[in-house]
Specification:
- The chain has 19 helices and 36 strands.
- The protein has 664 residues and is of the alpha+beta class.
- It folds into 4 domains: 60 residues, Ubiquitin-like (UB roll) (Roll), CATH 3.10.20.30; 177 residues, Threonyl-tRNA Synthetase, Chain A, domain 2 (2-Layer Sandwich); 276 residues, Bira Bifunctional Protein, Domain 2 (BirA Bifunctional Protein, domain 2, 2-Layer Sandwich), CATH 3.30.930.10; 109 residues, Anticodon-binding domain (Rossmann fold).
- The strands form 9 sheets. Strands 18-23-24-31-28-27-25-26 form an 8-stranded mixed sheet. Strands 2-1-7-4-5 form a 5-stranded mixed sheet.
- The longest helix is centred in the N-terminal third of the chain and has 22 residues.
- The N and C termini lie far apart (97 Å).
Length: 664
């Protein structure tokens, strides 16, 4: 007789079913079965209707239209795509086909070279499979040998067999079949291909290596997306089109901000003068915030002995993401994180309780070895600077520090234009360092601090750092994409590993707690996100060039243009003057292409009246204004860190945009 397991429902009820009961039957027992229920979330894992439940825990239905439901839909759509590819290209061998954010992909090995023109043909075959309404059936092999035998009967199986051989001996090996197609897969899936519907689209073709290893077989990857309605698909495709326009790699090149030279520095950005202005403006902004909160700044070496990384625990958890070098026949690592260097600064002197909390900030250059396939311009690169800080505090100070940090993140994000912020409390991952007690204390400290300030947050089990739990801040950009940015991490382990102490008020030496925190995170990633958020049109306080002075005639108006430029710079504005021989309209267009917020057009009338004809980058004509007033208006906008251009454009008839009226 099967052992009974207890399933806890959202309404507090408990349902007991025999271990191995199919999800569909467990849902019926709980009174939760319905047409829109596609599976269940059991103990944090998404299972489809055909999967047996073998563990007790929370039991929640997964419905169509939810993020979990989309995962099931997209997994099945990936199989429909693979089946269509097999029908069209019979020599194909399957690798892996996971669900990813907003879609899915599948890797194939085939003699046919996929091109974009193949995608509509594959989509048409997918539509046939959906129309056939093939039941999707799950089965389990009795062991690894049977699984490999099943694979070799149904398909070429080099890649899939490798996966099976690496599974634990007691692992459940499952297959999913639909029509003539059978695939090794853990699920979850829909009950029928008919449930896939029509709202799918194949998006692109790319190359990939098996296991992301450049020394292994090169494969071909097809990307796709799937939604529960054609309206949702259309909205996604529109967002995708907008995202392509905003791609920071494209805008970074066009706006002369940043470039990449993979032949000499793969995954490492080259900041151009205009991009460096934004970089420095953000660093100055953060330093201003830190100065008001009693931080002190440090700098630590970029290359540190491997023995230090063994001591910190990074070597056993992070070695594959580190760069190494040899100095005097000894191994050193290029730092991927700033924590050990900060600990050595703390360790350099005997600390008193009067020194705490000690807030050590560092804009530290880090290098991490990211696989080539995951590099993505500034948002995923191998060299970056973090606006790091390590706060050393007494345990009783921890709650106040967490509350202050949450407030700081909210303040900064509001001022840079991120209004929609979500917090995730990420707990202990499978691979971690430290004792159970340390983790309980750290997780409890974060959770109690969040509850004390009334902050809403989502629990993210198992997603903490290897040395401690953390609060991750997710923001939504201008087109609704979510980005993980700031992080606050509590660490009881590092002080123990480095034997960090302070002398308490009673004269006893005690262990501090370390809070790791980054507000912007990686400066590179943050700027990449900002470029896309603002579509390159930065608010004036962040713009590389805030004002461009444009003379109507180079020959006649250049002297006054230089006076205007001097006035702008005297007010602290980032300004330039276009004194070239091009026509005025061409100069205006050049400034607009670089998204300069304001143009001061000057001609003979402006020189005589000591005015400037103000234009905004959106072609708005703001009219003639006294030079001093215009300069002060832009300076005030900069000081206020306004997210909008504040000098009003003149009203025009029928929405027409009139050119600035200036005369030679």
């Amino acid at each position: 007789m099967a052992t009974e397991i207890a399933l806890k429902l959202a309404d507090g009820r408990e349902v007991r079913v025999p271990s191995g009961t199919l999800v569909a039957d467990a849902l019926r027992s709980a009174g939760l079965a319905s047409e829109d229920v596609l599976g269940a979330k059991v103990g944090g894992e998404i299972l489809d209707l055909q999967t047996p439940v073998r563990a007790a825990g929370p039991f929640l239905p997964v419905r169509a239209g939810t993020p979990e439901g989309l995962e099931i839909l997209r997994h099945s759509t990936a199989h429909v795509m693979a089946q269509a590819v097999a029908r069209l290209f019979p020599d194909v061998e399957f690798a892996i086909g996971p669900v990813i954010e907003d879609g899915f992909y599948y890797d194939f090995d085939t003699l046919h070279v996929f091109v974009p023109e193949d995608l509509p043909r594959i989509e048409a075959e997918m539509a046939k499979i959906v129309a056939e309404g093939q039941p999707i059936r799950r089965s389990e092999a009795s062991g690894k040998s049977e699984a490999i035998a099943t694979l070799t009967k149904t398909q070429k199986a080099k890649f899939k067999s490798e996966i099976v051989r690496e599974l634990p001996e007691d692992a459940a090996v499952s297959f999913y079949s639909q029509g003539e197609f059978t695939d090794l897969c853990r699920g979850p899936h829909l009950p029928s291909t008919a449930r896939v519907g029509k709202a799918f689209r194949l998006l692109s073709v790319a190359g990939a290596y098996w296991r992301a290893d450049q020394k292994r077989e090169q494969l071909q990857r097809l990307y796709g997306t799937a939604w529960f309605s054609e309206q949702d698909l259309a909205a996604y495709l529109k967002r995708r089109e907008e995202a392509e326009k905003r791609d920071h790699r494209k805008l970074g090149r066009e706006l002369e901000l940043v470039s990449f030279r993979p032949e000499v520095a793969p995954g490492m950005p080259f900041w151009h003068p205009r991009g460096t202005v934004i970089y420095n403006a953000l660093v100055s902004y953060v330093r201003e915030k830190l100065a008001a909160r009693d931080y002190v700044e440090i700098r630590t070496p970029h290359v540190l002995s491997s023995s230090l990384w063994h001591r910190s625990g990074h070597m056993s958890h992070y070695k594959d993401n580190m760069f190494f070098t040899t100095v005097d026949e000894n191994e050193y690592a290029v730092k991927p994180m700033n924590c050990p260097g900060s600990a050595l600064v703390y360790e350099a002197g005997l600390r008193s309780y009067r020194d705490l909390p000690l807030r050590l900030a560092e804009f530290g250059l880090c290098h991490r070895y990211e696989k080539s396939g995951v590099l993505a311009g500034l948002t995923r690169c191998r060299a970056f600077v973090q606006d790091d800080a390590h706060i050393y505090c007494a345990p009783e100070q921890l709650g106040d520090e967490i509350g202050a940090l949450v407030a700081l993140v909210r303040e900064v994000y509001a001022e840079v234009g991120f209004a929609n912020i979500r917090m995730d409390l990420s707990t202990r991952p499978p691979s971690s360092t430290g004792t159970d007690e340390m983790w309980r204390n750290a997780e409890g400290a974060l959770e109690s601090a969040l509850r004390r300030i009334g902050a809403e947050f989502r629990l993210a089990p198992g997603e903490g750092a290897f040395y401690g739990p953390k609060i991750d801040f997710q923001v939504s950009d201008a087109i609704g994409r979510s980005w993980q940015l700031a992080t606050i991490q509590v660490d009881f382990s590092l002080p123990k590993k480095f034997d960090l102490v302070y002398v308490a008020a009673d004269g006893v030496r005690k262990r501090p707690v370390v809070v790791h925190r980054a507000i912007l995170g990686s400066l590179e990633r943050f700027i990449g996100i900002l470029i896309e958020h603002f579509a390159g049109a930065f608010p004036t306080w962040l713009a590389p060039e805030q004002v461009r002075v444009i003379p109507v005639s180079e020959e006649k108006n250049a002297p006054y243009a230089r006076e205007v430029l001097a006035a702008c710079r005297a007010a602290g504005l980032r300004a330039s003057a276009d004194l070239g021989s091009e026509r005025m309209n061409q100069k205006i267009r050049s400034a607009q292409v670089l998204k300069v917020p304001y143009m001061f057009v000057v001609g003979g009338r402006e020189a005589e009246n000591r005015t400037v004809s103000v234009r905004r980058r959106d072609e708005g004509d703001c009219g003639a204004q006294p030079l001093a007033d215009a300069v002060q208006a832009v300076a005030a906008e900069t000081r206020s860190r306004s997210l909008a251009l504040t000098i009003p454009a003149q009203a025009t008839t029928a929405g027409a945009k009139k050119p600035a009226k200036a005369t030679t």
